[in-house]
Amino acid sequence: MFYFGADYYPEHWPEERWIEDARLMANAGFNVVRMAEFAWAKMEMIEGKFDFDWLDRAIEVLSSSGIKVILGTPTASPPPWLMSKQQDLFLVDSDGVRQTYGLRREYCPNNPLYWIFTEKIVNRMAEHFKDNPAVIGWQIDNEFGDRCFCSICSTKFQKWLQKRYQTLEELNEKWGTIFWSHVYTEWSQIPVPLAILRSQNPGLGLDYRRFMSDTYRDYQKFQIDIIRHYCPSHFVTHNLMGFGYNQLNYYDNTADLDVVTWDNYLRMQWDMRSYIDPAKAALNHDTMRGLKKKNFWVMEQQSGGGGWEYVAVTPKPGELRLWTYQSIAHGADGIVYFRWRTSRTGTEQYWQGVLEHHGNPGRRYLEVLQVGKELSKIGDLIEGSQVHTRVAIMQSYDTRFAFQVQPNHPNFSYEKHILDIYKGFFHNNIPVEIISEKDPLEGYQVVVVPAMYILTEETARNLEIFVQSGGIVMFTPRTGVKDETNTVVNIKLPGLVANICGIEINEYVSMAVDEDNQVKFGLPELEEDFPTSVWADLITPKGAEVIAFHTMDFYTNQPAATINRCGKGKVIYIGVIGDNAFNVSIARVISNMAGIKPLMKTPPGVEVMERWKGNKRLLFVLNHLSETQEITLDGKYLDLINENQISGIISIAPLNVLILKELINKNI
Ligand code: GLA
Ligand code: ZN
To answer: How many Å lie between the centroid of ligand 1 and the Cα of residue 227?
Structure first.
């Protein structure tokens, strides 16, 4: 079954209304809701007095309309009676300021008392709902991730370090604490990297970030164990925040979950411009799918403008539907709109639900209902289908954490660099998966490794094996600079992969923020000049062939990019940061080298993705533009939504979607 529904807060509305909600939901084709993740106060209004009757009744109303339930554990928003017990329950931010009550996520994830009350509520919930046939799964907390700098966390950090390094000698050695005489002689002397430290010891800065990420994994695991104990047949998930969120190691932290779910918002108050970049959402999806190498759910799919203090730009007619199908095209097996009905009170009064404040169906409801109708026709075909990718982009949270400690250049952002490289493939309609530096590489043909700043021996070895056996790898500047402890390597860059690149970097030039440079490419399929900025690596080939030169400044004519044959594969090193046109070209060249063709040639702004079930494929054509576009199909297809056969040149309306099933007589 394809799961389709909304995040529902029955506790916000009079009970008499629930039946109408369930009716409207069922009418829109909903078969699932997520509930209770912010309802701690309603479930335990007074300490130790649990009340699940109201939730039983809500579940009953919904399940009579055929709607299943995912329950959230409510620990993201603790009630005041709990938080007023002790000051230490509150998180301390990087400025050393203790949070106060009044928002959510204000708790310190290491506070023992918080764990005690977590245990109580989760236990009671799990025990109460374990046999309710309408409940199918659990979401642990919501959007984990704020770092805490309190004294409890600080002591825990010291213990974590002790486990990692065993002795202080080892820690001092690995962090190089002799620099500025930071040599620790007691574990208790080690600080947490408060913002006031500005440029902290890089080893300390990286380890603290790893520790906080592990902290949330432990806290999540604590809850998962309780749920699994009572409800072994229910799935367990957490609601994540896509590619952009950079405070947790999402690979480690999703290892304990059954399925990844995340929040997909494109129009929010924080960006009031009209243009929406569909590549960003696509990158989010491909990252979330890459976490467990399997399909995911969108637990919060945008259902209207997303605003708190501002009313966000209104999604245009068709956008909600388009973004829903984009999620599905990238591997979503469940779509849950946030939220069912816009709240009349609280911080999120302007975060629009499927229904407006007044609760009567309007344009957004009708658009969602249209999707529901369509999914009732095609949901079975989508179910069980997978996204196939032959290109992977490798990212590392250790590298992200290390760049948080030292961004390296004011105009360099690792995340933006990955997005830019991703866009190169996106605009060529070549599907990509975002993988971690520890993932196995078999099955991919191209692995792009942007700025792998912290490069471990294990990753370097895996990449070498991949290349030796025929893979194509591409590296970019700031690769191989540091080891696992955030210490700079004492070999020439790109460090541990210099060998497979067949190069040495003599100098890495950090460019002025108001200066550009240029490279000249000399490949048969790419004979062009491109502007560059931020970094310029001056390369000496050691066996590699030069494919581009810098054309300006004191390093004019020095090699800027190379290609090296290595075993059965090839390694490309790009020693510059290029523009979008450059990224699109390089993605085309590298895919071509691997024999990977675009899924379809389309005008810019029209995205194509595919999902496979066995040897059958579904093609999703998404027009992200506000004008009709023409595309040329490469065969005969069945248009599943309109139920007709199409081929040749067809037009696709603004913000519209085509879902095409390949007809058997197509010649691939
Ligand atoms: C997040 C949260 C939701 C809600 C929305 C809108 O994604 O998970 O609870 O707050 O944002 O702000
Ligand atoms: Zn803390």
So the answer is: 23
